């Protein structure tokens, strides 16, 4: 990594409340923020209706949405903020964009990925070469794949709920780790999980601003420490039903700092 005097940042993300919050936050430390924003339906009621036959999943995502609006409030990207340039595309279309189409968005000093669809091909090759940073919601190498913080709570491992800020790699969530971001806000499961997202945002913003992130030596992930590697289809109605029946004590296990790398709380 190098320290930059005039900071240009490219963020590849989505368009939910938390993603917009990150856009606004990064705009405060960059001279120019380029955002490739994959967009899906912003009206959560439509998402809930998709789970009309999945009572527990519908209940789960309603709790997620309520926690998100509480932790991040109702975030919008202001059109008056002239240092932000956004390229909106449909969610899942990222890999259909040629490098030529993205040219203006690929001339930055720092590249950050959060909440986008899976990146592959020439764009992935370019971002890996540029030492792009990925925000993974889950504490790697213990939890990798999809819905990691859900599974950490399901396993009654609240001390392994958090975010991993790591270098983007060609493997899923497998790049060298820069550090972990965690939260002490343990009011309920959903706010606890969502507050770790906020911790990730503030940590990466602060550590880019003071240049400390450029001095961190990345640590290769130890695959032998993996507890779960999960896929989307494992998050089922039956599993969520069991989750709601569990007596999950957020304070049962204290943070074990030996499991974490340079954690930000």
Can you walk through the features of this model?
The protein is of the alpha/beta class. The protein is built from 7 helices and 9 strands. The chain has helices at residues 17-27, 44-50, 55-72, 121-129, 148-154, 189-209, 237-245, and strands at 8-13, 32-39, 84-90, 110-113, 133-137, 143-145, 163-167, 177-181, 228-230. It has a 7-stranded mixed β-sheet with strand order 3-2-1-4-5-7-8. The chain has a two-stranded parallel sheet with strand order 6-9. Helix 1 runs parallel beside helix 6. The protein starts with 7 loop residues before the first strand and ends in a 20-residue tail after the last helix.
Which SSEs are present, and which pair or pack?
Elements: E1 8-13, H1 17-27, E2 32-39, H2 44-50, H3 55-72, E3 84-90, E4 110-113, H4 121-129, E5 133-137, E6 143-145, H5 148-154, E7 163-167, E8 177-181, H6 189-209, E9 228-230, H7 237-245
Parallel strand pairs: 1-2, 1-4, 2-3, 4-5, 6-9
Antiparallel strand pairs: 5-7, 7-8
Helix pairs in contact: 1-6, 2-3, 3-6, 3-7
Q: Quick summary of this structure?
A:
By secondary structure, the protein is α/β, with parallel strands linked by helices.
């Amino acid at each position: 990594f190098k320290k930059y005097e005039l900071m240009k940042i490219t963020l590849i993300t989505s368009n939910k409340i938390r993603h917009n919050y990150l856009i606004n936050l990064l705009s405060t430390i960059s001279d120019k923020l380029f955002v490739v924003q994959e967009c899906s339906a912003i009206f959560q009621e439509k998402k809930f209706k998709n789970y009309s036959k999945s009572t527990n999943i519908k209940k789960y995502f309603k709790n997620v949405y309520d926690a998100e609006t509480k932790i991040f409030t109702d975030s919008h990207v202001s059109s008056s903020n002239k240092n932000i340039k956004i390229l909106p595309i449909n969610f899942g279309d990222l890999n259909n964009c040629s490098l030529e189409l993205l040219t203006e968005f690929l001339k930055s000093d720092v590249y950050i990925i959060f909440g986008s669809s899976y990146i592959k091909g020439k764009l992935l090759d370019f971002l890996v070469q540029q030492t792009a940073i990925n925000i993974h919601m889950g504490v790697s190498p213990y939890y990798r794949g999809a819905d990691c913080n859900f599974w950490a709570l399901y396993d009654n491992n609240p001390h392994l709920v958090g975010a991993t800020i790591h270098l983007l790699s060609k493997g899923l969530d497998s790049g060298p780790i820069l550090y972990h971001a965690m939260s002490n806000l343990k009011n309920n499961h959903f706010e606890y999980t969502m507050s770790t997202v906020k911790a990730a945002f503030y940590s990466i913003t602060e550590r880019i601003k003071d240049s400390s992130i450029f001095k961190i030596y990345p640590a290769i992930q130890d695959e032998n420490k993996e507890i779960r590697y999960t896929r989307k289809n494992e998050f089922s109605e039956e599993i969520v039903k069991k989750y709601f029946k569990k007596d999950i004590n957020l304070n049962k296990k204290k943070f074990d700092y030996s499991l974490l790398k340079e954690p930000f709380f």
